[in-house]
Amino acid sequence: MSFSQGIADLYLNKLTRLVSALDREQIDHGVQVVANAWLAGKQIITLGNGGSALTALHFINDWNKTISMQTQRSFRGRSLVDNVGLLMSYANDISFEDVFVEQLKHVLLPGDLVLAISGSGNSENVIRAVDYANQNGAVTLGLCGYRGGKLKEIAQHVVWADIDDMQISEDIHFMFGHMVMQRLAGYY
């Protein structure tokens, strides 16, 4: 039995169907939310768990380097997932549910953008961070999948991959980050 036979067609057809059905206005709006924060000189702060943590970190890697290099304009991006020691300290000493809120307490300023990524939309530490950001004058953008979960309800702006598949949701979120980078870097 061949395990790989047809997997490319199955996966790519599923991804293609979702890409075709995505709300392009919602995506363009999300890109504009990031652009507005950047142009206003605000911080863009990303966060997420698991694969979404790596997506959050990848966004900041691409955006800080490429947008700044291409435009000669500073991009004030930071990710709350890049300091493992700090994450584990808060998780151990306070709670895993508060690892992002505790960091926001020390860096968030009114008008900053908090971009929260959660495939399910229900990660408690992500939800608490968005609640905190909303209550403290930040702009919030949620990237979610599945039914959108709590994140879709509480984020001020949302990019939603309406599919019950974590990997396809993550693919869409990753593509969003590349769209932001290419647009703000002036590629198109």
In short, what is this structure?
By secondary structure, the chain is an alpha/beta fold. It is 58% helix and 13% strand.
Descriptive overview:
Residues 34-188 form the SIS domain. There is one protein chain. 58% of the residues lie in helices and 13% in strands. Strands 2-1-3-4-5 form a 5-stranded parallel sheet, with helices on both faces. Strand 3, helix 6 and strand 4 (139-144) form a beta-alpha-beta unit. The mean pLDDT is 96. It has a single domain, classed as Rossmann fold, CATH 3.40.50.10490. Helix 3 runs parallel beside helix 8 (166-184). It is of the alpha/beta class.
Taking strands numbered 1, 2, ... along the chain, how are they ordered across the largest sheet?
2-1-3-4-5
The fold-level CATH name is Rossmann fold
Low-confidence stretches: none
Q: Given this structure, which CATH class is correct? A: Alpha Beta
**Class inferred from helices and paired strands:** alpha/beta
Largest sheet: 5 strands, parallel
CATH homology group? Glucose-6-phosphate isomerase like protein, domain 1
Amount of beta strand = 5-15%
Mean pLDDT: 96
How many strand segments?
5
Number of domains: 1
Output the number of helix runs. 8
Domain SIS: 34-188
InterPro entries: GmhA/DiaA (IPR035461), SIS_dom (IPR001347), SIS_dom_sf (IPR046348), SIS_GmhA/DiaA_subfam (IPR050099)
Protein name: D-sedoheptulose 7-phosphate isomerase
Keywords: Isomerase
